[in-house]
Structures are given as C-alpha cells and as structure tokens.
Amino acid sequence: MSFMGIGLIVYIAIFFVLGVAMYYLVQKSGKRYIIAGKTLPFFLVGTMLLAQSLDANATMGNAAGVYGGGWWAGFQFAFGLALCLLVVGLFYAKPLNRMNMLTLPDFYFRRFNWFTEIIVGLLMCFSFAILVAGNFAGAAWIISIVFKINYVTALIIIALFIMIYTISGGLYSCAATDIAQIYPAMIGFLGGFFCLLATYGWGHFSAAIPDNFVDLSGLYSVKNGALLNWAGILALAIGDVVALDFMERVFAARTPEIAQKSCFYGAAGTVITGIVCSYMGLMGLTFFPEISDPRMILPTIAQDMVPGIFGLLMLGGIIAAGASTADGGILGVSAVMGRNLLQRNILLPLARRKKALRATDEGREISDEDAKMISDRKLLIIARIMAIPVVALAIWIAIVKPEPGILLVLAFDVVFAGCLVPLTLGIYWKKANTPGALAAIFVGSILRLILFYQIPEHLAGLDTLIPPVVSLIVMVPVSLLTQKQYPPKHHVIHEIPDDAAVLRGDA
C-alpha cells in the first residue's frame, strides 16, 4: 500500500477513536449530547464553526468551480459561508444563545407555535439529509480513488464510521474530531499552495488564466454568470443562517459573547482557506488543461504536485471536510426528529398523561427533578436512534444521486425562502405572530418550488433571490391584520427558561 493510503488510514482511525472516546462525556444526558451541556469555550465553538463551514463545496467544489467558470464560480462557496458566519455573529448568535434552546426549531415553537415548529423541522430535516448525502458521497469518492475500491463499498464504510462516532459522543465527538481534522487540513492546503508558489512562481500559472476568470465581471455581468453567482453567495450568506449545524454550535457556547466571537473566528478561517483552494483551481488550468472531471483538481494536485506530507494532509482535509459537515448534519437532523417531531409532539404528551395517572395511583406528584431526568435520558436515546434512519436515507441518496447538485440547492433554497424571515422578524419585530410566520413559510417555500420550474434559463438565480423578499412582504401585513386574534409572544426572546423546562419541552 502507498504512503498516501497508509497515512489516510491512520488519519481516519485517529479521528474515529477520538470521536468514540467522547461517549464518556455525554453522561446519559440529551442536553449534553446535543449541545454539550451549553458549556463550550471559544476555541471549541470557533473550531467547530470553521470545520462546519469548510465543507466539500468550500474546498473541492471551490477549486473545481474556479477551474471551470472563473473565480466567483468557485470562491462563492467559501465567501458565502464566511459571510453567513459574519451575519450570524452580528445579528443572531447572542439573542439565540441567550434563549437556552436545544435545536433551531425550538425557536419557532417558543416564538410561534407547535405547528410552525413541525413544518420548519420537516423542511430542515429534508434539506440536511441531502447535505449529509452529498458529503458522504464526496468523502467516499476520494476513498474509492485512493484505495481503488468500489464507490458503494467506500460510501457504506465512511458513513458507518461517521455515524458510530457521532452517536457515541454527540456534539463532544464533533468538537474532538473537528480539532483533529480542520487544523491539519488547513496546514495541508496552505503548505501545498505556498510550495507550488515557491517552486513555480505565479508567472508560471498566470499565462493560462483567461482575463474574465479573475476580474469582477462574475459579479456584474449576467453573461458571465453574475445572477447565479449572487444567488449562490446570498443563499449561503443569508440562507444558511437557518442551518441546523451552525446553530447547534451557537447554542452550545457557554455565553452569548463566546457564541458571537466564535462566528467571527470561523468566518476568518473560512475566507483564508477558501482563497487558497480557489487559487489552486486557477493553478489547475496550467497543470491539467484538459482534465475530464474538474472535481479532480485538488485530489490530483495533492497526489502528484506537492510534497507527500502536504498532499496527505490535503487529501485528509478533503475527506475531513465531508466528515465534519456530515457529522453535524446527522446530529442536527436526528436531534430535530427526536426532539421536535417525536418527543415534544408525540412522546411528551403521552408521558405527561402517564405521569398524571401514576401520581393519582400513588397519591403523590413526581418531582421536577425526576421528570427532568426521565425526559433528558429519553431525549438521548431517541436522538441516537433517529440517527440510524437519517444515515440510511443519506446513503440511499448518495447511491441514487451521488452529485446532488441542483437538488441540494433547491432543498436549501426552500428553507431559505420560507424560514429565514420568521426567524429574523421573530427576534427583532415585536408584532411578528403565528399567522404571519406560517404565511411567510408557505408562500416563500411554495413560490421557490414554482419558480424552479418556471424561471427562464437566462434569469436563473432570480428563483433563489425573489422568494425570501415575497416571504417578507407577506409576513408583515398578515401579522398586523391578526394581532388581536393571535397576540405575539415577543417576551419569550428575553426569558431564559430553566433546564428542567427546556428538557421537558415546556420552553
């Protein structure tokens, strides 16, 4: 076996063992499993946000996009994700961290109602299942190339590895593995890039780069893809505000200030690494002018063009980019399915009914502490069980559609179109209420689906940009017209429920 193959096996084994070892930190607690007990310091939260942001799109997809369509066709991924973390840090991290929540749909329950929570939870679970599938596929594709094994075999192996360490320690496993993954990956990308510059000089590459690949025409010329580029940037920068994986980490920060600063840290690291990957895409125009698959740019540079240690860290980084995003997605979706769809709306009402019967039979009430522990332990069990169907669905999608492409874009655009406005107005507008939120969700999401089929090809990109604006236009008047029948619950933004209420589902 080659040096690269042995190195990757060791690399994957290290973060697998680290992830499984975090089992002991969960301590049979659902809250510790999902948001690490809301105790994490700046370095861990910032590292996790950085690792979650630097996914397969921001690295491998970035280089491939630059190679095929110019700077903004690829750099838009890293740039948009970095802008998202900046926006979250400026406007969302502090108020949402203060609310002491376990999942993002918890906000829609507290601020609006249970039906809003269910609709939002279903939309987010669907989009993130596709995201997990895409990252499974990217990591499996690299493994199948390096080890020369069947793609499906590689897919099942990597999916099971990620699932096992994720359900072992939850967010603690994500934190431990992200540290082991992201910093070696950044060393690999930066080290490989500067080695190429030192060896060849930029002049060696610049002659092969078309002028329109490196100018600003990709931001203002429709002919050069400006509408699509802006749609991609804004969908990531604003649409990913409602990303389950980012918000898990925001909720896990020990204080609102740590949550905010961690977002800025993640944004800075994403921009730096994204620029390097984009430049490698431009270098690929010289190294591989007729490559058949642009996705191979970074993997081929790693294997053939840079010193072995940097190449190993680059390949490991590409796999890690998929793994870190996939584990966050698995945890986020399974937590929402367990917490917001099953526990609160099915199991908790049944448990309360049984509790009332038992209290009547025994002539006494069950203590709040007993109720808290029962609910907390059940949440842990449910969230772990829900990870199994999530991973199974993601594996199936990765087999049927290993390059989700437009399906992934559409899924996240639907969430962007429907869920962002209720979240933002729910935080910052006191008159936002349940009918307004539901109208915004349904109109924005359905409009995005309609435009997907109806928008002319030359206006592609507007189908992403228009629905959130319409969602805003709908929510404001509907909220104003229904104030008396459905009084807003703005006070919940400023109330911090105790742990027992959060775990029981009262908040």
Write the SSE topology.
Layout: H1 3-21, H2 23-26, H3 30-35, H4 42-53, H5 57-69, H6 71-98, H7 105-111, H8 114-147, H9 151-169, H10 171-200, H11 203-206, H12 211-214, H13 217-220, H14 226-237, H15 244-252, H16 256-287, H17 297-304, H18 308-362, H19 368-400, H20 406-428, H21 434-454, H22 462-481, H23 499-504
Helix pairs in contact: 1-9, 1-10, 1-18, 4-10, 4-15, 4-16, 4-18, 5-6, 5-16, 6-14, 6-15, 6-16, 7-8, 8-9, 8-18, 8-19, 8-20, 9-10, 9-18, 9-19, 10-16, 10-18, 14-22, 15-16, 15-18, 17-18, 18-19, 20-21, 20-22, 21-22
What's the rounded overall pLDDT mean?
88
Shape label = globular
Strand content: under 5%
How many structural domains in the coordinates? 1
The CATH topology annotation reads as: Sodium/glucose cotransporter
Helix and strand run = HHHHHHHHHHHHHHHHHHHHHHH
Give the CATH class.
Answer: Mainly Alpha
> Structural class from helices and strands?
mainly alpha
Q: Let me know the largest β-sheet.
A: none
Percent of residues in helical segments?
over 70%
Total helical elements = 23
Low-confidence stretches: 360-364
**CATH architecture heading:** Up-down Bundle
Total count of strands: 0
* Intertermini distance: 55 Å
Name the CATH homologous superfamily: Sodium/glucose cotransporter
Q: Give Rg in angstroms.
A: 23 Å
Descriptive overview:
The protein is mainly α and 507 residues long. It has one domain: Sodium/glucose cotransporter (Up-down Bundle), CATH 1.20.1730.10. The protein has 23 helices and no strands. It has helices at 3-21, 23-26, 30-35, 42-53, 57-69, 71-98, 105-111, 114-147, 151-169, 171-200, 203-206, 211-214, 217-220, 226-237, 244-252, 256-287, 297-304, 308-362, 368-400, 406-428, 434-454, 462-481, 499-504. The longest helix is centred in the middle third of the chain and has 55 residues, at 308-362. The chain is globular, with a radius of gyration of 23 Å.
